[in-house]
Amino acid sequence: MLSGILNSPRAVAVNVEIMRTFVKLRRMLASNVELARKLDALERKYDSQFKVVFDAIRQLMIPPDNKAKRRIGFG
After folding, report:
1. Integer angstrom CA distances of residue 50 from 2, 15, 43, 56, 66
2. How many distinct structural domains can be found in the chain?
3. I need a surface site. Which of 5, 11, 16, 50 has the fewest CB within 10 A?
């Protein structure tokens, strides 16, 4: 989250890479049922302190709707 606030070139680059990683993760989870099963197993194994992480990953698993997307970033 700090990389989204800082304005240095390195922080911007880190923020872009973080976003790209989450997009790739969402695509992998949406296309790979086995990975979703493993995520379920991990969720059962670990306690509630990781609930926020698992909830975020679940949100990423939801396929994006085909609405018009607005561009993000510097233009």
Report:
1. 20, 22, 8, 10, 30
2. 1
3. 5
